[in-house]
Design brief:
binds guanosine-5'-diphosphate, signal recognition particle, alpha/beta, GTP-binding, cytoplasm, ribonucleoprotein, 12 helices, EC 3.6.5.4, 297 residues
Length: 297
């Protein structure tokens, strides 16, 4: 997930821990290298800068440089600071889905992994939380996308709203809402249409749908490989629609991982899950401790 970053940081810290005694300059030099590694991982500049500043403040005091294992102390400070920058509030991956039927709105750009993630999350809610889930595709411009969700639904044993040709997204949403109530569903997930880029039409459509259901969760699904672009996308969607969290997909790829580190700090929104492959089980809770551990190898 963070191979390159992890490797880079590993070599900086290896040197530091092997060195024994450390001067403040040694620590500063190492942190400069950490900063470069973060920027190369496509962490946004202000986030990288604040991160290094926070670490430097804690790591250059006498308590660290005069300690018996200064290198390890620096690594521990970096580790704790990583957790700090990754942390959202509350339980990792928690969703507000009490009071059935709870609507979850899935938003994002086309190709980001929205439909796949909708199904993965539905499967998780069904299997882990014992929820009865209904999925509905609102992608009226791409019949193939509607079909795709229906096929995934069959595969994972989750109901999808029957497709009615010619309906607009708001009408489908109203039908999903009624069906969710009448059918005794705990959760209904709305897979909104994506576009190749953010445009007014897309946003207006999602706003209209949002206003029909008042979603309990609005999750932005975004390709983690796109680094800072993923963060900009989140800012845009949050401004216009209001999002409650983010799912970063394709984190199984040779991602530089920067989006994971910048997202919370820049947008104020937590990453709730990460996508780690195309399979229906390849969805993981975003756990700051675990992620920090992975980054530091
Ligand atoms: P949508 O247009 O946003 O609905 O995107 P899709 O859900 O159709 O996903 C686009 C492609 O990305 C599909 O081939 C998915 O299998 C793939 N995909 C989605 N999530 C992941 C992921 O976490 N990792 C990998 N490797 N591929 C993914």
């Amino acid at each position: 997930m963070f191979e390159n970053l992890s490797e880079r940081l590993g070599s900086v810290f290896d040197r530091l821990t092997k060195q024994g005694a450390l001067t403040e300059d040694d620590v500063k030099t190492a942190l400069r290298e950490v900063r470069v590694a973060l920027l190369e991982a496509d962490v946004s500049l202000p986030v990288a800068r604040n991160f290094i500043k926070a670490v430097e403040k804690k790591a250059t005091g006498q308590a660290v440089t005069k300690s018996v294992t200064p290198g390890q102390q620096v690594v521990k400070i970096v580790h704790d600071e990583l957790i700090e920058v990754l942390r959202g509030e509350g339980e990792p991956g928690a969703l507000r889905i009490d009071n059935p039927p709870a609507p979850i709105l899935m938003v994002g750009l086309q190709g980001g992994g929205k439909t796949t993630t909708t199904a993965k999350l539905a499967k998780r809610l069904k299997e882990r939380d014992g929820k009865k889930v209904l999925m509905a595709s609102l992608d009226v411009n791409r019949p193939a996308a509607m079909e795709q969700l229906a096929i995934l639904g069959q595969q994972i044993g989750v109901d999808t709203l029957p497709i009615v040709k010619g309906e607009d997204p708001v009408t489908i949403t109203k039908r999903a809402k009624t069906q969710a109530s009448l059918g005794g569903y705990d959760v209904y997930m709305l897979d909104t249409a994506g576009r190749l880029s953010i445009d007014d039409e897309l946003m207006a459509q999602v706003e209209a749908v949002r206003d029909v259901v008042n979603p309990r969760e609005t999750l932005l699904v975004v390709d983690g490989l796109t680094g800072q672009d993923a963060v900009h996308t989140a800012e845009n969607f949050d401004e216009r629609i209001g999002i409650s969290g983010v799912v970063l997909t394709r984190m199984d790829g040779d991602g530089r991982g920067g989006a994971a580190l910048s997202m919370r700090a820049i947008t104020g929104k937590p990453i709730k899950f990460v996508g780690l492959g195309e399979k229906m089980d390849a969805l993981e809770t975003f756990e700051p401790e675990r992620i920090a551990g992975r980054i530091l190898g």
